[in-house]
């Protein structure tokens, strides 16, 4: 474990919850930050707060309502349907969202004496979000360091993992059941396995099935024969 402090960008979903467990295992001290931007489901915020409380993590909620003002879309507005054209960006896209979130996370991190910023962005299942790409994260890391004269490190433990591998990581961290049961990924605001119909649920389920089909050694059973 590194004797350092980290801030996890945390939404209460599968990816960021896996990152939170990763950070808890990796760093001496961890805090979480959640952005309130008028999500379709305020339940997301409750879910994040519940998980942070249960894990004993200090939880910051920052108001980013201006995002809704700048880019009203399907993620924040109930009157816009979620859809994805083939090869196009899903209607959940908000221009510059990760740029803004990570920048605010960095201001917070410096304020509480943390160098590490952990985010669940991922380039593998690239859905067209340019600010999820590794090259963007590296570029922003340099910019943040220069802007605040501080040596931030942006950690992206999921960057090169596919969804099945993200489940595997949660399992390795002893958090498979926790992530499966307690997180909210579904666009319709249903925890755990969700509604099963929306794009987020379909992506999550495909990864889960792929992981389970791979003959994965799930926590609780993984110690058999190895201890
Ligand atoms: Zn769903």
UniProtKB/TrEMBL annotation:
Domain of life: Bacteria
Coiled-coil portions: none
Binding site for Zn(2+): 186, 195, 198, 201
GO MF annotation terms: ATP binding; ligase activity, forming carbon-nitrogen bonds; zinc ion binding
Reactions accelerated catalytically: 7-carboxy-7-carbaguanine + NH4(+) + 2 ATP = 7-cyano-7-carbaguanine + 2 AMP + 2 diphosphate + 2 H(+)
Co-factor binding comment: Binds 1 zinc ion per subunit.
Any GO BP: tRNA queuosine(34) biosynthetic process
EC top class named in words: ligase
CDD domains documented for this protein: QueC-like (cd01995)
Residue intervals passing through the bilayer: none
Listed EC numbers: 6.3.4.20
Cofactors (names): Zn(2+)
Keywords per UniProt: ATP-binding, Ligase, Metal-binding, Nucleotide-binding, Queuosine biosynthesis, Zinc
Pfam families: QueC
Pathway where this protein functions: Purine metabolism; 7-cyano-7-deazaguanine biosynthesis
Binding site for ATP: 10-20
Function field: Catalyzes the ATP-dependent conversion of 7-carboxy-7-deazaguanine (CDG) to 7-cyano-7-deazaguanine (preQ(0)).
HAMAP family: QueC (MF_01633)
Protein family: Belongs to the QueC family.
Subunit structure: Homodimer.
UniProt protein name: 7-cyano-7-deazaguanine synthase
